[in-house]
Write a structure and sequence with these properties.
alpha/beta, Rossmann fold
């Protein structure tokens, strides 16, 4: 099958979160199942620099939302890319969505509307010699694609919309509608209208043939008022089309036995070789070099990620004998709070505000446990990295965290099945109790080593999940009337 994937970011070219990892890894994994994927992405400066003069021009839009744009074909890191080269929309350095002051670009509706319009044209055969059998769209930035496909006058192709985080919906004022080039009846309850505004994600949820999200638990959660962010009614109404497929990770990039980022490579068979990474982590974060457990955080410092809850219990963590290494950016108040903790707890807490891909690998390889107290988490990837690296995940019992980590309760420990610690609810007392449980296990060296090894044996690759996507693709393809 020929598949057009549409995404606003893709690893290793441009990344702000897990969406990029999925967009980059899934096409490679799908190739083993007979899927030929081309991914349409915006021509950000980093993307244009990476493809350089290797790109081939396939198509030109003379008037794409009022601008000229080219579709370029290129290969990079094993990926077949279609790059929408539209400098007026995408030639902006830094974050692909936000202006330097931190707010979203005021013309994001136009930028990603253009991406979706181009995707729909490609779906209907705009490119010479290649036409997809199915279109797979990721998050709100690509969600208008099935809307354009539905309201086009050409035969409709199967479309899938994957929700990576339903909190981000692409909602805009109704005044943009005339500029989208959609027929008047698209501005309706069964189209893109949403409480008197325009919603890219709502439109995609309404018109895509199938909806997936990134874990089975999250697929159920978003059908409730607590997690559905106002769209739970629509998703419940379309429940028969909703599938939860847990994300995987690229196990070649994330492999402690071959990872060039590490001071010392290791495996489940050679766990002692992990120790030099622990020392390197302590030095980088200014932590005491002793045998007490190191907890790490690699996260956006936000309310969603439960970082305010963690901030409340850092004193408990230190009092119990633990140390904490925090890497991330986010809400200014939380950034300042974690900076201050370095002064309050010298040698026990280290904070680096920013994001460093190499350092995140060292944290997973050097820390004993990773804290992920998210209030909601569609899938999460850091716990999967933790499992792979023997960095025991301590997670809230929600979304993909609940689906991928087996709690170290007595029954699971007795049969050597546990891979981490779960807790609920996301409250300071529950997180503090989870930290206490973790330290108790850490002090039982035999139990701790078993927990690490069991986690490292977990299959966190894309193999099983890519197979589920391939099955869904084939199922949708069979629904198409063919001559």
């Amino acid at each position: 099958m020929k598949v057009l994937s549409v995404a606003s970011e893709i690893y290793p070219l441009i990344k702000t979160g897990g969406l990029a990892d999925v967009a980059g890894a899934l096409p490679l994994a799908l190739s083993a199942f007979g899927m030929e994927t081309k991914t349409l992405i915006p021509g950000y400066p980093a993307v244009m620099k990476a493809i350089g003069d290797k790109a081939e021009k396939l198509h030109t839009f003379d008037n794409l939302f009022g601008e000229r744009a080219d579709v370029l074909s290129a290969r990079h890191a094993g990926l077949d890319l279609l790059v929408l080269d539209a400098p007026a929309f995408f030639n902006r350095f830094g974050n692909p969505y936000n202006a330097p002051h931190g707010e979203g670009y005021s013309d994001n509706w136009r930028r990603f509307g253009a991406l979706c319009k181009a995707a729909a044209e490609i779906a209907s055969g705009a490119l010479p010699g290649w036409e997809p059998d199915l279109v797979h769209c990721h998050d709100w930035q690509a969600a208008l694609t099935p809307v354009y496909m539905r309201f086009a006058e050409t035969p409709e192709k199967p479309s899938i919309l994957t929700i990576h985080n339903i909190a981000f919906q692409g909602n805009f004022g109704i005044d943009i509608f005339p500029w989208l080039g959609l027929p008047p009846h698209a501005l309706a309850v069964d189209g893109i209208e949403y409480y008197g505004n325009v919603s890219f994600l709502k439109g995609g949820l309404q018109t895509a043939w199938s909806v997936t999200t990134v874990s089975p638990t999250y697929a159920r959660e978003i059908q409730t008022a607590q997690y559905g962010m106002g769209l739970e009614g629509l998703i419940s109404a379309r429940a028969h089309t909703v599938t939860g497929i847990v994300n995987g990770i690229d196990t070649d990039v994330w492999n402690p036995a071959t990872d060039d980022s590490l001071v010392s490579r290791y495996s489940a068979h050679k766990p002692r070789a992990r120790e030099p990474n622990r020392q390197a982590l302590s030095e980088r974060f200014g932590l005491d070099n002793d045998d007490s457990p190191i907890f790490c955080v690699v996260s956006r410092l936000t309310w969603q990620k439960g970082m305010d809850i963690l901030a409340e219990v850092v004193g408990d963590l230190v009092a119990m004998g633990g140390k904490l290494a925090v890497l991330g950016t986010g809400e200014p108040g939380l950034e300042e709070g974690f900076r201050n903790m370095v002064r309050f707890y010298p040698g026990r807490v280290g904070t680096i505000i920013g994001y460093d891909e190499t350092l995140s690998h060292i944290q997973q390889a050097g820390a004993d446990a990773i804290l992920i107290p998210s209030r909601f988490e569609p899938c999460g990837l850091t716990q999967l990295y933790g499992l792979r690296y023997g960095c025991v995940p301590v997670v809230a019992r929600t979304g993909g965290l609940a689906d991928t980590v087996i709690d170290a309760n007595p029954a699971a420990l007795a049969v050597n099945a546990a891979t981490g610690i779960q807790f609920s609810p996301v409250e300071p007392w529950a997180l503090s109790h989870a930290i206490r449980r973790t330290i108790s296990l850490y002090n039982n060296k035999k139990a701790w080593l078993g927990l690490q090894k069991q986690g490292m044996k977990s299959d966190v690759s894309w193999k099983a999940s890519a197979g589920l996507y391939a099955d869904l693709y084939r199922k949708l393809d069979l629904m198409v009337s063919k001559p």
